[in-house]
Design a protein that fits this description.
Shape of chain A: elongated
Oligomer: homodimer
CATH architecture of the domain at 161-291 and 324-336 in chain A: 3-Layer(aba) Sandwich
Distance between the termini of chain A: 81 Å
Number of helices of chain A: 11
Largest interface: A-B, 61 and 61 residues
Structural class of chain A: alpha/beta
CATH class of the domain at 161-291 and 324-336 in chain A: Alpha Beta
Order of helices and strands of chain A: HHHHEHEHEEEHEHEHEHEEHEE
Radius of gyration of chain A: 26 Å
Largest sheet of chain A: 4 strands, parallel
Strand order of the largest sheet of chain A: 2-1-3-4
DNA sequence: ATGAAAGCGCTAACAA
DNA sequence: TTGTTAGCGCTTTCAT
């Protein structure tokens, strides 16, 4: 019962036709005669034949898979984008190869490696810290990035980061906050820069002070949010409201503040960014800016598939809308200062 | 500058040797003469040659990739296991193909599909709800499951689930709880069953009552944890301590209880399972059972690689230890009942 | 130590 | 509508 896997030859023999006909039956059924088709299908069923993807790919000069480059697989943020990517790649017959840029030595080199390895028909870049310079590889496959990136070297799916920051600041201001701080992501990340820019611009527009010592650097993790909270607690003159560049940091910040015996939003108002699943399950619920990560992944995949199929290399980039999600972690500022 | 990608032929020509020699130089350098080797390497560098993995795989009758089947990519639980898998698969030269069992119609059918598709040299199953019966496919590749599974149809990497449950219950009992409840995962999941069994056994051992109405069914998600909390709040006669089968549920439970105005652990003690990142950032910190998910992934990958390389099909399964992580979400039971 | 040659399993011209 | 045929790029006997 453990006999060799059937090849197209076996099917052809069983159906009494040529291998070409078998191949056609399977790829463009419309072009073969009804009777032949039935015979072939029957033979396929009998032999348990499955096309050998490797052989097919070799012949068709493609690989049937897409590489996804991301900085940190363990981060749930990327998991959701992956989910979106998979939802369009899988039905389209593409495999999704995951590569962690942080696991090797030089991330940029990894990118270069994959670009020239010919191992994929396309690449999705999710690492905002990679250098666009690494892209200049001769016969490289199409690349889409699902993250902010310097310049327009590559079509991308981005999010309204500046507007998100503005929504966050606007909400705090509307609640009466006039001392608003910010916790950023890592300095070299483009998301960090865009949101910080949005934050500054919003304060400016509202005529609120932008104090350098109220801008703390984090790295998007919960730990860095907790660290920011400790820094905030140690301040003489604290901002009453904070916009944090990621929900994870907001979670870390809020937990630390609460463990220090203060209350949110009584003592400090918090607005995050992402709307991760836990945001609504915290107490108080985390006010945040939603970015639809599954959609981001799905759109990126669609863009890439389009590029792969048409060969076009300059698809227009896309901007995905963000949405303000009011919950309870932001309220009026404390009366006494 | 955009000329075709170099093939092994081009290299052979440039180095003045046969393609066989080029191939040998690249795979078993020891077997070619020093001078030839240098010439070949030089030619490789000049042409920018990279072996075509598809052709190589076709010839060698392998695929160079491993399929990972999981129920839900968006769940951070799996993301960490993936991270562990990638950390050994990538260096070993295997690609990691991700497949979401939930996205299609019948998950079991998906498994069967991949088993017979010949698209991978091995498969890692992370979905505890798949039926082992689906495994009986003639020439299927090696399979490892990194999750509890019925029987020993397949080598697996598991976690001391029963002991974890016992640790949780033991901790609550030691704190003085005599009314202990449990929130399970989905009924058809093997993790659910094992932990529930461990829960029951522990109560038994301690001579504590096991009340059926104190066992609530969840599905591992935060939402289901919140739902369990509402059910708990509505009870006449509530357990004072709860063991929840996942941290995500514990998070949902705790948030809901807090939003209802009760305090943890003053009004109810909570112990989770997993030690997800957020556990330490909550307020109070979540007491839980740690399972090292990255290790689980890494060990599963090692097991699978061993099977692929040796052809062995009955590697011994492995059990990964769990660890009790005390934090503040469990305390003494309320005085008044 | 090296080369010649035979495919791996499939698809796509081109013919018929 | 179907069959014949020529590879896709590589690895691996088998000779030399």
């Amino acid at each position: 019962m453990d006999r060799k896997v059937a090849t197209i030859q076996d099917v052809a023999r069983a159906a009494g036709v040529s291998t070409a006909t078998v191949s056609r039956t399977l790829s463009k059924p419309a072009v073969v005669a009804r009777t032949t088709r039935d015979a072939v299908l029957e033979a396929v069923a009998q032999t348990g034949y499955r096309v050998n993807a490797t052989a097919s790919n070799l012949r068709r000069q493609r690989t049937g898979s897409v590489i996804v480059l991301l900085p940190n697989l363990a981060n749930s943020f990327f998991a959701q984008i992956l989910s979106g990517l998979a939802s369009v790649l899988t039905p389209a017959g593409y495999g999704m190869l995951i590569a962690d840029t942080q696991s090797g030595p030089d991330p940029d080199q990894r990118l270069a490696h994959y670009l020239s390895s010919g191992q994929a028909d396309g690449i999705v870049v999710l690492d905002g810290a990679l250098s666009p310079a690494a892209l200049s590889v001769p016969g490289r496959p199409p690349v889409v990035c699902a993250c902010e990136w310097m310049g327009d070297a590559v079509p991308s799916v981005r999010v309204e980061n500046e507007r998100g920051a503005a929504l966050a600041v606007g909400h705090l201001a509307r609640l009466g906050h006039r001392h608003i701080g910010h916790v950023t992501g890592p300095g070299d990340n483009v998301l960090t820069q865009t949101r910080l820019h949005g934050f500054r611009a919003a304060l400016d527009r509202l005529g609120l002070p932008m104090r350098a010592d109220w801008v703390l650097e984090g790295d998007f993790t919960m730990d860095s949010g907790a660290a920011a909270a400790r820094a905030w607690l140690a301040m003489q003159d604290r901002p009453t409201g904070l916009f944090l560049s990621s929900d994870e940091m907001a979670v870390g910040f809020m937990g630390e503040v609460q463990r220090a015996g203060l209350q949110v939003p009584l003592d400090v108002s918090i607005v995050g960014f992402d709307n991760i699943e836990i945001a609504q399950h915290l107490s108080p619920g985390l006010t945040t800016i939603r970015q639809p990560r599954t959609d981001i992944g799905a759109r990126a995949a669609e863009l890439l598939l389009g590029m792969i199929e048409t060969g076009a290399n300059d698809v227009p980039s896309e901007i995905i809308e963000v949405e303000f999600i009011p919950r309870s972690s932001a309220g009026a500022p404390p009366k006494v200062r």
